[in-house]
């Protein structure tokens, strides 16, 4: 576990075993709500499956999408009461805005600290807290025995029928290039391959 973690939000829904929706913490929910830069496209996150500390199992994922929920959009009709009065007398009537993140699971860390890449054996639960991974955790999740980065979850990402996946994988490769400078040449080959396929396959 890092010395200081950035709490992002909590799991509120799943679309599949690897596709989750996280609601970002807002003001008043946590002492220091995350900034948009903390949960940007391609951010590595961990969903804590147990609040047991450093050795608790956790799901590792990537932020691949953002949705903004604003129930008042398009509500241009007259109000029977000013918003301030509604907040006081009928607070349940007001639906709050929310920022939702699409997170795809790419692996997990078990209770013994062993790292696994690919389809997670573990599943997150509703209200499971989500936090940002630091550089040391990202490096540890990807490093193999020889210090080279491994991307065993690349096939999992590419199998998703989503136009955002190729740029997501490119952002991951760029991030790993900064964390594994000795592997830049190897990662550049993979990046070129992914970039080429992202151009050719839609056209074909």
Please give a structural write-up.
This protein has 204 residues and is an alpha+beta fold. It has one domain (7-153). 27% of the residues lie in helices and 25% in strands. It has five helices and seven strands. The protein has helices at residues 83-89, 135-142, 154-158, 165-179, 184-203; strands at residues 7-14, 19-24, 44-48, 58-69, 98-109, 115-117, 129-132. It has a six-stranded antiparallel beta barrel with strand order 1-2-5-4-3-7. Strand 1 and strand 2 form a beta hairpin. It is globular and about 60 Å long.
Report the uncertain regions.
none
Going by helix content, strand content and strand pairing, the class is: alpha+beta
Mean pLDDT value: 86
Q: C-alpha Rg, in Å?
A: 20 Å
Count of folded domains: 1
Query: SSE string, helix = H, strand = E?
Result: EEEEHEEEHHHH
- Helix proportion: 25-40%
Quaternary structure classification: single chain
State the end-to-end CA separation: 45 Å
Proportion of residues in β-strands: 15-25%
Largest sheet: 6 strands, antiparallel, barrel
Q: Total number of helical segments?
A: 5
Query: In total, how many beta strands?
Result: 7
Shape: globular
Strand order of the largest sheet: 1-2-5-4-3-7
